[in-house]
Amino acid sequence: MFRSPARVFAALNAVRPPDQVVPIMGKAVVLGGSVAGLLAARVLSDHAESVVIIDRDDLQVSGERPGVPQGTQLHALLPGGFLQLERLFPGFREQALAQGAIEAPPAARRNYLDGRRKVVVPDDADSLAGSRPLLEGLIRQQVLRLPNVKTVTARATGLVCDGAVTTGVHCDVGGLAGVESGDLVVDAMGRSSRLSDWLEQAGWERPVARRMPVHLNYATALFRRRETNPELAVVLALHSPGMSSDVAGAAFFAVEDGRWMAMMAGYGENRPGRTADDFVHRLREQFPPEFGEVAGGELLGDVQTYRHADSRRRDFHTLKRFPAGLVSVGDAVASFNPVYGQGMTAAALHAACLSAYLRSGPDLGAPARRFFALQKVVVDAAWSTSTSADLALPHVNGPYPRGYRVASWVSRQIVAATVTDVTTARRFNEVVSMRAHPRSLATPGVILGALRANRRAR
Fold first, then answer.
1. How far apart are CA 354 and CA 37, in angstroms?
2. How confident is the model at residue 27 (pLDDT cuts 50, 70, 90)?
């Protein structure tokens, strides 16, 4: 039915909004005003006469949202996600910079692995650095300016179906029950989405849920930034699982309002940086000098902590029975170990799947199987990238996919080669930034090149 996953992935990365808006439905309803929900609403605005976003938070109010408990933590906008946002919202870069975001071209990004500085890839894609509230807020501003998009502050409580077709959702609006009708309903309710329960209650199949326990502990702090235009905007330092360290890694980004946002992470019972003294001490003593320079600035506010128990996915694409007029996007389908920064970029690619599906002239009276097949390519790519790395962690006990030992050895060789070899680093960066499918690394040329680079380095 489709081309190879690598070609599908490449096609999705090239998806652009249609030149001419041609509505194929009356009203679309999006459940959740998350980044995934907002991007889905942006795509739907090209194909529906009206779009309604339902969220428990008042989306007209700017700033941090109670519905995003992880919003205080450091978030990465990968180059792949940045490219998607620029296509959906022409001029996004300039508007983000005007609101305080910081440019992060390749020369302004630095990576370390086990204390060794990685080679700089000269032609890597640009990105932006900024806090989650700034980036999400700008996306929300762009979407809510669209003339056919409106918001409803309410809690969705269940599906409304007419036979085998979803026709809307039940809502609780200030304690009053109501119904929001629509020709297409999009579930963007995040990791805690209740769609599986609703399907089961209505007599449909419940999607198989898979989980990978990771038990990640985050700590994030803000520091005063003296430089208006810092030479380095993004610095990451990761420790391999085999290192005898209770810190998995750290990072700092230049963000708006003259601040550095620094993050530290550990797994299992390791919770580094829970106190300000511990946070500052570890940045100075356990990471490259750039981290100590950031930690030497004024600490702004308290250290914010967050715990991520597991990566999870819901396999809607496997369902044999599924109602028409219903799709799911973002963390409601799959959420990953956040240390890899895939969340916002995966949401943008789900929006690209929705755009490709709606432009194919679908029968909205039939299940959206083409959409879920496209989305599976994105989910599989992100899932394989994150879980293959998670399986190397000492406290993660599987499940291990077939051929894991060989694949793990190859992966270690490629990662090691990224420290010194530009060609390998470029191919690797394309995959981790979600601009290329992971299979593009599993070629004889890439593997042999990595082995040669590692032999030279030794």
1. 12
2. very high
